[in-house]
Each structure stands twice: as C-alpha cells, then as structure tokens.
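We close this part of the discussion by returning to an individual protein. Part of our work consisted of pairing the sequence of a single chain with a tokenised description of its backbone. No coordinates are needed to read the tokens, only the vocabulary itself. The amino acid sequence and the backbone structure tokens for this protein are reproduced below:
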Amino acid sequence: MTLIGWTQIAVFCGIIILLVKPLGAYMTCVYNGDRTWLSPMLGPVERLLYRISGTSEKEEQHWTHYAVAMVLFNLAGFFLLYGLQRFQTLLPFNPAGMGEVGPELAFNTATSFVTNTNWQSYGGETTMSYLTQMAGLAVQNFVSAATGMAIAIAVIRGFSRKSVSTLGNFWVDMTRSTFYVLLPLCIVLTLVYVALGVPQTLGAYVNATTLEGQQQTLAIGPVASQLAIKMLGTNGGGFFNANSAHPFENPDALSNLIQMVSIFAIGAALTNVFGRMVGNQRQGWAIFATMGALFLVGVAVCYWAEAAGNPLLHALGLEGGNMEGKEVRFGIPLSALFAVITTAASCGAVNAMHDSFMALGGMIPMINMMLGEIIIGGVGAGFYGIILFVVLAIFVAGLMVGRTPEYLGKKIEAKEVKMAMLAVLCLPLAMLGFTAFAAVLPAGISSIWNPGPRGFSEILYAYTSATANNGSAFGGLSANTPWYNITLGIAMLMGRFLVIIPALAIAGSLVTKNAAPPSSGTLPTDGKLFVGLLLGVIVIVGGLTFLPALALGPIAEHFAMLAGQTF
C-alpha cells in the first residue's frame, strides 16, 4: 500500500461527501414536485405524458396499487427486451449481422436488465445489435434504475407522512426520476466521455491493420451513451465484454474517477433526501455514516490483500503486489477501489478481473453483495435495503430496553419486523440455496474452471451477484448454459422483487401511523450510538448467515495458499 494509493481513495471519498447535500437537495425538490431549473423545459412534456397515460401527479396510490404498477411495468419491459433479442436479425441497426439470441440466454439477459442486475453471459460486441443495445439494454438501464429510485422515495414517504394511506404515484415517481435526474446527468456524462475518447456512433465496425500486418476488426458503436447510464444507474452492463477494463469504455484515470463517482452519487444522495423529507438531516447522515464505515473497511481489506500479493511468489524472490488481471493504467489501488465500489453499489461494472484477485481480496466484493445492497447500493435499492436493517436494529434495541420499538416517532410492530425478515431471508435462500445445488449437480459443476475452494467461490460469487442484482462475476465460470441462465435469472427475480414488495408493505403500514413526539426513553437514531447498533446488527446477521459458506471458499483458499497449495 502506498501514500498515492490512499490519496486516490481519499479524493474519491471527498468528492462523494461533497455531492451528498447539493444532489440530495435537488432530488428532494424533484420528488416533492417543487419547481427546479429544468421545470420550464420538462414540465410541459411531463404533464403531456401523464395525460396520454391516463394518470396525474395529483393521483396517489395505496402501496398495493403502487406495487402492482411497478410489477406490470417491469413485466412489459421484460417481454420487450426478450423480443428484441429473439428477433434482432429481422430488425434494423444491425450492421454486424448479429444473429438471434437463444431462448435461455435471452431470458437471462432480459431478466438481468429489468432487475438492474446486468449480468452478462455474453459478449456485448459479439452478440447484441445496435438496436438491442440502445432500445433494449440502454432503455432498461434507465427504467430499472428509475424503478429503484421510485421505490426508495415511496419508502421514505412511509416515514415522512403521517396518518394517510398513500405512498405517491409510481408512474409519476419513475417519470421524474428519469426526466429530472437520470436523463440530464447522462447527457452531460455522455458528452464528457466522448470528449475523453469513448466512441459514440452508429457506423459499422472498423477494420484496422496491426503493426504486424494482421487485419483486426475494432468493435465500436453507441458506447458513451450506454456507459453514462450504466454507471449512474448502477446497472453495470458494458457495451464490450471487457466492460470498464476496455480502453474504449474507460480510456484513462480521469474517466475511471468519473465512473466511480457516478456509481455512488445518487445512492449516497438519497440518504440526504431521506433526512430532508423526514425533517432531520442528521437521520440521513447517520445512515450515510453506517454505509461509509462498511465501505472503508472493505476498501482497506481489499487494497491490503492485493497490495500484499502472493506469498508463494515472494518466496521465489518476486516481490510486489498482485497485478494479475489488472490494467496497468489503473494499478492496484484503483482496481481494488473500483471492485469495492461496484459491489458495494450493486453496479457490477469492472475495471479488473475479480477472479484474479487474491482470496481475501475477492472475498470483500462477495461480502458487499451478501449484505444485500446496503453499502450505498443500487440507486434506490441501497436505501430501501438498509432501511430493512434499520427496522431490525430498532426491534433489537426495543428488546434490550424493554419498550415498544419506534423509529422517527413511529412504532415498529410485528408486521414491519416480519416483512423485514422476509426480505432479508430471501437473499441467503437464493444465494446459498442455488449454490448448494450447483455445487453437486453435474449441470453446475461442469462449468467450473478451477478446482477446490476456488471453484466453489466462483459458483458462490455467481449466485450472490445475481441475487444481489449486481452482475459482476468471477470469470472462471462458464455461465452461458441452460442451467446457469435459468437459475441465475430466477435468483435475480428473487433478489429484486422479494425485497421490493416487503419494503413497500412496511412503508404502506408506517404511512398510516401518526408520529409520537420523542420522550426521555426514546432511542436517538441520529448519533453514534445508533450507527454502532446498526453496524452490529448488519455484521452479526451477515456473519452468522454467510460465514460458513465463506469458510468453504475464499477463507479456505487463503489458508491453503499459506500452506503452499494453489488452485
């Protein structure tokens, strides 16, 4: 580890902290329906869209209606994207003549992008036409991110509103997320990426002659526009198979910094939106501090593991950190930082091969995902994910002091706790359940490239990534098979909708309650004590649930390496 490396990490953290309040203030205005600098331009378009779709910004929904609208919208998006893949040979904007995508892979990909996972069992530049990339994948990048943001706002309203029955309007929240937040920022980011050298064209692939005189086909296309939303919306699906390790997607250190900041920007700002909407910004900062503490611990461990390198190579006189699978233009610190950011935020974009990380270095991305999108998390998903742990922490605190748990003056009762547990338990059910089957069935183990605990880690990482709606992978697993395409798709659906529905149910229950004023026995939830309690609940629940699986994978591999054995 070096001073320059830690300085790079500190600069990133400083930028994120500086963005929290201004972006949070702007987003609060957007979701409250207040006038913004974009209102004169987008307001008429927004109202016209509502009239065409038969709704209104004044029309609000009960949580069940909100959930049904969300499910139906995402179901329609799934069928649209599935159809684009299956019939892309008959559709325009296909200069490379891409063939139709097989049914299992089309199911996996459609599910992946609809759930904001962007798991890719294919090479983007060799599988998808321009039309599929733009009208299918890029569109879902926008609306899946907007869906997560809408759900987060609905959950926030569950705490901020009192004695009402509605959480807002899904169509309005999603439209405003897209029009006022995602689209303007992505236009700016696209122009910045083009200026930095990222391609943005509908032209055909380019043929070039190498220095050796060989012919090479360079894949290009509408890269910059998809890159902007894949990062800002924490989608992660790259135009190229190499993702953000590809020089056309990530040319230099400046583009790398912009991409990392984009991943965290909205998720971090939503904590400030929460504080503003409940009338106490310290509440939002307490949640942000919890996220930040978990993030910094993960960065420190991952950077240490990669900087320390392999002791077996050190014994041969080969000193230095682990540069295997990393781009020299980013080095160890920025590769480790990117890996932690992308898995803390459920983005899934990568600028290094996670399968080449040291055992403990690769374990940190897995832990980030196992905790369930709570360290910043996907846009929106990170916030309502950590709120589930807030409910559990408040419940535990109530048991310890012998009084009815309450948060922001609202009593946390049996229904809220049951819904939180249902959402939290669905994650290990999919992550560990599918891993257990894949580790013993021929259809699962036939895709493993590495033996022993490394091979087990590859399976565990895949199902963890899918369930956490992350999309990154340990590369040593051939996942483009019927078994993995179908089971990973099911895991994505479980990790997305079996968390959203209980979260909305909690919000729907809380919004009907009145808030009691704080008393001498009320647990302060905006200070260090609550941050420590919340961290403890997260670590204990995560540790008890996933430590045995980690012991069979990365931890076992680490100790085997110390004993001189590799896999």
Q: What stands out?
A: The CA atoms of residues 232 and 262 lie 5 Å apart. The chain has 20 helices and four strands.
